[in-house]
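Need tokens for this chain, all 348 residues.
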Amino acid sequence: MGSVTPRLALSQLQQAQSQKHVTVNDDLIAIDALIDLYLLGQFVNTPPSSPVDGDSYVVGGVPTGAWVGYAYKVAYCMDGAWRFFAPFNGLRAYLASNGASLVYVNGVWLGDMLLPGKLGVGGAIPDSNNPVSMNISSMLLSNGSGTLNVTLSKQASANDARFTFQTNFSTRALFGLLGDDNFTVKTSPDGSTFKIGFVVSKDTGAVDHTQGAKFEAVTNYDNYVAANIWTKVAFNSANHNDQNAFNGTNNRFVAPIAGYYLVGMKWRFKANSTVPASIQGALYKNGAALAQTAVESWGTVVTLRTRVETQTVLKLAANDYIEVFAFMETNDGYVTSADSVFYGARIA
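Here are the structure tokens for all 348 residues:
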């Protein structure tokens, strides 16, 4: 027979032991402290200044004052002094600060269940904002016999029903029904400023790629092109210009972010006096001609009827720019404002 019990470490009375009442009283104090343990605080480092007999705390990792040397022990006030007990596997406690029911297992206090309306798993302690809280590495939901359904239902259309993704508790992405009944994905670099990635319409199912640059530009005057000189066409007015990627002042499209872009143009010829032998057009990237976009008229050039057009898919870096150029062989002429257009869209 050992001298103490294996769990509460209560001293066993020995035959012919003197002052048995001292041992019994110490054991009664241990029982009073640890049975139905009622904690006023968890991982507290500084002892309270005016404790009351029966007050109990779990000491933190860097204790001060009277608690120095008793890290992670249970501190229990009796007769105005602190007594300390080592927690053991299966020891249960109630944490008064948030209503958590805790259990000590293998050196860790776990929040296994809470009072009505709250649940903690894996040591996570829920609160009023997060009544269900988990500290786990993975989760499995499985139904081997049929449909598995998870439902998020909000009270009104203007509310959110969403999933939130965070880094160190700073939000980086949201998806769900965000302030309306369309399905929306948003991202954030800092947890406070958000951009919409895409929106799926609740009515049509159509996907709106909100951040994708899209534009169509025209020129509002006839552009003069001298003979035998590649000349930039001054597309200067946008019919639409998502993300403000088209710059009407510089007559160019500027890629706001890296990606694949569909870009194209067409323009119609207008004679000055004598028609050119041919008319040509091309897209330029960062001031250099893109050979794969070069096009040339066929047959006799006819004023206000002959036109050239081209389009291609380009892989662009952020701030790469695209412009439209025209060429008149032998004789000069105009790119007419009628039926001339420059357009593009980010596709991936």
